[in-house]
Amino acid sequence: EVHLVESGGGLVKPGGSLRLSCVASGFNFSSYSINWVRQAPGKGLEWVSCISSSGSYIYYGDSVKGRFTISRDNAKNSLYLQMNSLRAEDTAVYFCARAPHVGDAFDFWGQGTVVTVSS
Amino acid sequence: DIQMTQSPSSLSASLGDRVTITCQTNQEIRIFLNWYQQKPGEAPKLLIYEGFNLETGVSSRFSGGGSGTHFTLTISNLRPEDVGTYYCQRYDNLPPKYTFGQGTKLEIK
Q1: pLDDT of residue B30
Q2: Mean of the per-residue pLDDT values of chain B
Q3: Half-sphere exposure of A30 (CA within 13 A, CB side)
Q4: Per CB distance under 8 Å, which residues of A are interface residues toward B?
Q5: Would strands A108-109 and A113-117 be described as parallel, antiparallel, or unpaired?
Q6: How far is the C-alpha of A48 from the C-alpha of A12, rounded, in Å?
Q7: How far is B67 from chain A (nearest CA, A)?
Q8: Could you tell me if A12 and A90 are in contact, meaning their C-beta atoms sit under 8 angstroms apart?
Q9: β-strands B10-13, B104-108 pairing
Q10: Mean pLDDT score across all residues of chain A
Q11: Residues sharing a CB contact under 8 Å with residue B20, sequence separation 6 or more, in sequence order
């Protein structure tokens, strides 16, 4: 059975940093591109970043470019999101979601981890 | 920049009804949209990919269509479990990015 489990969320002050993780099981992690998608309280979905299966291609949404860094460790079936210079508007549930290739639909999602940026 | 507008923002319909959700772009796009369902408190779930392809395990009451600038998600024979918010999504190559529609909240009358 496919599983994506996010962790690392929490309460952080503006300007602070946080590192999210997403651990995969039940499928060949190294064959899929993986994305981060976030949802602010009561709002819609916003794509944050994606990384290709090998890690060779990385893309970011405009709102996080230069502040967030996506990475993966295929040996550990794990995806990461290093979030720096956090702002109140980064408060959201962060989901990881897989796609067969960059550009494809997201065919499986984790349950999300909550990030709150507040003083 | 291609703008995408999803409508309506909310929708109330009766059991057994057929409903249609639309995503429109301000320029013709040579790709097809994906559609997701998100139930309250849950992660989104893929329903339709590349315009009209039904994801494995999804009810055939869901169907996708359209091309160019106008794309649709249709739900037939509305059931209580269809309550939730629906999103369209597209991918652009230049620059590489995904964009979601604003969402449509579906309720049962």
Answers
A1: 77
A2: 94
A3: 5
A4: 35, 37, 44-47, 50, 57, 59, 61-62, 95, 97, 102-112
A5: unpaired
A6: 19
A7: 17
A8: no
A9: parallel
A10: 98
A11: B72, B73, B74, B75
